[in-house]
Amino acid sequence: MSRTIMGFDFGTKSIGSAIGQEITGTASPLKAFKATEGIPNWDDIEKQIKEWQPDLLVVGMPTDLSGRDLETITPRAKKFANRLHGRFGLPVELHDERLSTTEAKASLFERGGYRALTKGNIDSQSAVVILESWFEALWSE
Which segments cross the bilayer (predicted)? Predict the structure, then answer.
């Protein structure tokens, strides 16, 4: 089975996105969407979903290092996931995203030094990390 999966790294000011293939278990960064208090321009997200036709959406679930919900951001990420499902009718899964930003920064820095560390790049690379770790979790079941 080879599904196309779109991943999101939710943030209140920016939402990173990535696209991945289940068959290869790899993902590539797409654009980061500007958000206001966690609310993106839904038309931009709709355009991207129409372009890529994903079978499933994965939203990174922000938690603290011990896996507990973060008081302010975790409920907003869940609401974003629910809205994605409600608007586009696609299945949505939440995936633990501990350390995705740290990994994303390290990966970008290796490839492009400090210049690569723009906010949008980091958010979309975080979405790549979230998706690829979702694939790993899927295969380890």
Answer: none
| Token pair recorded at residue 98 | 């501990």
Alpha helices, DSSP H only, in 1-141?
42-52, 73-88, 100-112, 119-140
Q: 117: domain range?
A: 4-140
Give the CATH number of the domain where residue 78 resides: 3.30.420.140
**Phi and psi, residue 67, nearest 5°:** 90, 5
Token pair 């690569």 in the structure block, residue = 116
- Residue 68: CB atoms within 10 A of its CB come to 9
CA distance 135 to 39: 27
0.85 cut: is pTM over it?
A: no
Domain count, the chain: 1
According to DSSP, the β-strands at 39-40 and 92-96 are: unpaired
| pLDDT tens, N- to C-terminus, the chain (141 residues) | 689 999 999 988 889 999 999 988 889 999 999 999 999 999 999 999 999 999 999 998 876 666 676 677 788 999 999 999 999 999 999 987 665 556 656 665 566 555 555 555 667 888 888 888 888 887 776
